[in-house]
From TrEMBL:
Protein's recorded name: Hydrogenase 2 protein HybA
Keyword Iron-sulfur: yes
Membrane keyword on record: no
InterPro entries linked to this entry: 4Fe4S_Fe-S-bd, 4Fe4S_Fe_S_CS, FDH_Electron_Transfer_Unit, TAT_signal, TAT_signal_bac_arc
Boundaries of every 4Fe-4S ferredoxin-type domain copy: 42-72, 108-139, 141-170
Cellular-component GO terms for this entry: cell envelope
Species this chain originates from: Magnetospirillum moscoviense
Length: 325
């Protein structure tokens, strides 16, 4: 018995390829649904209109997380981080336009911006980590990092839509550095340091439902009228009074990439403040959907292989019956 190459390829093309195509078509890439907020989710609210730019939260974060100074001036006298980085989990930045005279105003005004981990509801950094060094706590939803499990691939760095995780660069065994919502302090019954030290309540901590209620209360305030604002944690009773700002209806983090546990309120548009415009579907829901489809598609090579074997046997049988063709 001999199997002619032409017969083999003909049979393979007609049998295996058709089956393989059918298998691939039957497993299209689909996004899975967004993940949802865990039951006891906690979070932070940053209200740019209450922020006075004192940076007590930046210094407090450094102290709480034992982070070194991050200098950006030639004299190297002060801790002056320009952005989050391996030595800085939390920064306050400034938007300024024109004469920058009026706070919380887009034209000829200025506004403050706080940047740190958003503790996404459906985080990309967790989704891409091949060794589960990045995890989302099933109750609190805090996105945590385990340096012992980390293999330094930096997929989390590349995947975060907010540019949050940062790899150390001045050590032979670099770790990924990012805010973990002061989980070590929370384990001791304390609140995150940035909320603890904030003198105006611009950064406030609490369970997500309470934070959402507070956000809605602030959105309903009439601009310019005196209102009461709490400090540190929702329900603390530690209050101060001041005129409410003209809040935007958009609360950043409510819907972006399936929502985040760090929410932002402002009177100046988030685009002006440098926050990325993001869709409501999480990136991980899409990438995991495609991966899942690809793994399902592993059926395709099996079917192709089966198709090829079947085609080869069939061609061999025809060769035996019609050896002169
Ligand atoms: S902001 Fe980035 S690092 Fe933080 S949870 Fe979301 S994806 Fe992860
Ligand atoms: S929660 Fe803790 S680690 Fe995160 S920004 Fe606030 S102080 Fe820093
Ligand atoms: S401590 Fe509060 S008021 Fe001061 S910069 Fe930070 S968020 Fe703003």
């Amino acid at each position: 018995m001999s199997l002619k190459r032409r017969s083999f390829l003909k049979g393979a093309a007609g049998g295996g390829a058709a089956l393989a195509t059918a298998a691939v078509v039957s497993a299209p890439a689909q996004a899975r649904p967004n993940k949802v907020m865990p039951p006891q989710a906690v979070g932070l609210l940053y209200d740019s209109t209450l922020c006075v730019g004192c940076k007590a939260c930046v210094a407090g974060c450094k102290e709480a997380n034992d982070l070194p100074v991050d200098v950006s001036t030639p004299d190297a006298l002060w801790d002056t981080p320009l952005d989050i980085g391996p030595k800085t989990f939390n920064v306050i930045k400034v938007y300024a336009e024109g004469t920058a005279d009026t706070k919380d105003q887009e034209k000829n005004g200025f506004a403050f911006i706080k940047k740190s981990c958003m503790h996404c509801v459906d985080p990309s950094c967790v989704s891409v980590c091949p060794v589960t060094a990045m995890t989302k706590h099933p109750q609190t939803g805090i996105v945590e990092y385990n340096a012992d499990a980390c293999i330094g691939c930096r997929y989390c760095v590349a995947s975060c839509p907010f540019g949050v995780p940062q790899s150390e660069f001045d050590t032979p065994t670099p770790k990924i550095m990012k805010c973990e919502m002061c989980k070590h302090r929370q384990a001791e019954g304390k609140i995150p340091m940035c909320a603890e030290v904030c003198p105006t309540g611009a950064t406030i901590f609490g369970p997500i439902p309470a934070l959402t209620e507070e956000i809605n209360r602030r959105k309903a305030m009439k601009a310019g009228e005196a209102n009461v604002f709490e400090r540190r944690v929702i329900g603390s009773g530690d209050t101060h009074e001041r005129p409410a700002a003209k809040y935007l209806d958009h609360v950043y983090g409510e819907k972006e990439v399936a929502g985040t546990q760090f929410r932002h309120m402002s009177a100046v548009s988030f685009t002006k403040l440098g926050y990325p415009e993001l869709r409501e579907q999480s990136y991980s829901s899409q990438s995991e959907g495609i991966q899942h489809s690809l793994y399902q598609g592993m059926i395709a090579p099996v079917v192709v292989l089966g198709g090829l074997v079947w085609a080869a046997k069939r061609a061999s049988h025809i060769e035996d019956e019609h050896p002169e063709e």
